[in-house]
Amino acid sequence: MNVNPNFRAVNVTHWSLSAVPPSIPVDVRGDIYRGRRDSRPEGRPPDEPEESGWPVVTLYGVGLGPGAADLVTLRGKRVIEAADVVYTPGRLSRAVAAEHVSESTLGDLDFPMTRDPDRLREAWREAADAVAPRAREGDAAFVTLGDPNVYSTFGHLRRTLDAFHPDVTVETVPGVSAMTAFTSALGVEVEAGAGLALREADGGRSPTGPDRLILFKVTDAPATHEGLVEDGYDVVYGRRLFMEAGETVVTEDPTDVADRDYYTVAYAERPSADDTPATAAFESEANGAVDDEGPSTEN
Question: Is the sign of the CA dihedral 26, 27, 28, 34 positive or negative?
């Protein structure tokens, strides 16, 4: 597993106020501790910023959740409200961020809709070159739907910054991912101890694996459905779950979500999967008691 030494999680490793030398002004905003950046030397942040006395230049990657403005975490909200600029990679993430910060705070980054690796690398280099100076000047954040470290575009920006702007440290604030929010929207309970795999199903693919699968990017539901059913899965689909843009759909019929939509997920489970929890017996006992007593005649 590759662990980036220039990567941090907010409130896991950060400056404490007691560690900041009194000569460095500090602006306390929620969980963010920021010192003046204009006196900071160029180059990679020191390994021990607390001892060196130099503030860390930081970009905050913030997960906005599945798309509803009120599903942004309290910490995520505090971070973007404290930021001097909040970069958004697309229309949907911008709409969510705009519910929490002013339009004047938002910054747009242009990412082309292409699979050309050279064009994508060029776009990410341009994005990093735009973001890094703002992170040196003040608090900068980059927001993304879901979680910034789960199937997110944010990883590309982090790697590019590390390569070309190593003085910028990245900290992330986790967000509610659609791959976990689906359980509430679809009425699915994943029991403790149950095996569960996460797969991508773009272009009609039907990946298989354990008895339970979460599939995302289901852009050709009928084709994906056919393969899953052949392999013994029951499938339910959710589109734009907890999103304020577009229509939310929950269905077992793949034709209801046949048109291409990037924000479609599926939950597939084999009927043979049996992880009956101990408390399931209560339901059977309660139903048995009602049957024995018969219907109530009380008003």
Answer: negative
Architecture of domain 179-269: 2-Layer Sandwich (3.30)
| CA 6 – CA 250 distance, rounded (Å) | 40
Tell me what pLDDT residue 76 has: 97
What's the pTM?
0.74
Domain ranges within the chain, ordered by starting residue: 7-176, 179-269
List 264's β-bridge partners, or say none: 239
At residue 34, the pLDDT reads 38
Is residue 158 within 8 Å of 131, Cβ to Cβ?
no
Q: What is the distance, to the nearest Å, from the Cα of residue 187 to the centroid of all Cα atoms in its chain?
A: 21
Which amino acid is present at 68? A
Q: Is the pLDDT of residue 148 over 60?
A: yes
Q: State how far the Cα of 152 lies from the Cα of 93, in Å rounded to an integer.
A: 12
Q: Which residues pair with 267 in a beta bridge?
A: 214, 236
What topology is assigned to 7-176 in CATH? Cobalt-precorrin-4 Transmethylase; domain 1 (3.40.1010)
Reduced to 3 states, what is the DSSP secondary structure of residue 216? strand
